Amino acid sequence: MTHLKIETMKDFMMIFIGADYEELGLSPEQLQERMGKWFAWGEKMKNQGILRGGEALHATGKSISGPDRIVTDGPFTESKEIIGGYYTVAAESYEKVIIIAQDFPDYDLGGTVEIREVMKFE
Questions:
Q1: Do the beta carbons of residue 17 and residue 111 sit within 8 Å?
Q2: How many helices (H) and strands (E) does the chain have?
Q3: What are 13-66's pLDDT values in tens digits?
Q4: How far is the CA of 47 from the CAs of 43, 70, 75, in angstroms?
Q5: Separation CA 6–CA 83 (nearest Å)
Q6: Segment 61-80, tens digit of pLDDT
C-alpha cells in the first residue's frame, strides 16, 4: 500500500517558464550578468540549506503523446515560452516558496515561476 509522506518540511519544485535567452538576442554581457543572478540565487538557497537540486534545460526537445506515441520536435513549438529549468527546494508551505521565488532573475523578461509540491510515496 502506498502512503503520502507528511513532514513539516516539504519539497517543492519551482518550474521556470519564459523566453529562450537565445531568441531574445541578449548580448554576451547581458547573458553573463543574468547567469550571475541565477548562480547567486542558487548559492543563496544552498547556503540556507533549502536547495535540493535543479537543472537548466535546453530550449528544444521531443514530445511523445497519444496512444500511438507520436513523437514531435520541441515541447512547445508554437509557443514563445519554454520550460527553462527547475529548482527543488525544501519549505514548510507554498507561501514560503513564494518568498523564495522572489529572487527569480527573469521576472523582468516576463518569466513565470510555477510552484508545485513534490508528491512523496513510501
A1: yes
A2: 3, 6
A3: 999 999 888 888 999 999 999 999 999 999 999 999 999 999 999 888 888 889
A4: 6, 43, 34
A5: 28
A6: 888 889 999 988 876 555 67
Residue 19's identity, in one-letter code, is: A
Give the chain's length: 122
Quote the CA–CA distance of 120 and 21 in Å, as a whole number. Answer: 33
Residue partners of 44: CB distance under 8 A and separation at least 6: 103
The SS3 assignment for 22 reads: helix
Cell of 76: 512547445
Residue keyed to cell 513539516: 8
Cβ 103 vs Cβ 65: under 8 Å: no
pLDDT computed for residue 75 by the predictor: 63
Instruction: Write phi, then psi, for 53 (nearest 5 degrees).
Output: 165, 180
List Cβ neighbours of 99 (8 Å cut-off, separation of 6 or more).
none
Closest CA to 104 of 50, 42, 28: 42
